[in-house]
Amino acid sequence: MNTPLTSLLLSAPIPEAIKKKRVLLIDSSHTKRDLRAEVLRKLGIDVDSAADIAEARSWWKPALYDLVLINMEKEP
């Protein structure tokens, strides 16, 4: 029986080093943005989210984020 990778990631103990990470998540889809932010927070990561680049600029400060995630998917 194979355990899905997502189950392993969410159930495994989170190392202290990961808990201090900070991510800026940019996604125009409110539903996907909230879901992704929730998963990252469950992993112990601080998340700021923005709907577009203009909103992301208001969050941006140099050296504040360890990772910036941008959804580049075209909306229909």
Q: How would the blueprint of this fold be written?
A:
Blueprint: H1 5-11, H2 16-19, E1 22-26, H3 30-42, E2 46-50, H4 53-59, E3 67-70
Parallel strand pairs: 1-2, 1-3
Describe this entry's structure for a reader.
This protein is an alpha/beta fold and 76 residues long. 41% of the residues lie in helices and 18% in strands. The protein has a three-stranded parallel beta sheet. The protein is globular, with a radius of gyration of 14 Å. It starts with a helix and ends in a 6-residue tail after the last strand.
Mind summarizing the main beta sheet?
A: 3 strands, parallel
In spatial order, strands of the major sheet run: 2-1-3
What share of the residues does DSSP label as strand, in percent? Answer: 15-25%
Number of strands: 3
Short summary of the structure?
41% of the residues lie in helices and 18% in strands. It contains 4 helices and 3 strands, in the order H-H-E-H-E-H-E.
List keywords for this structure.
three-stranded parallel beta sheet; alpha/beta; 41% helix; 4 helices; 76 residues; single chain; 3 strands; globular
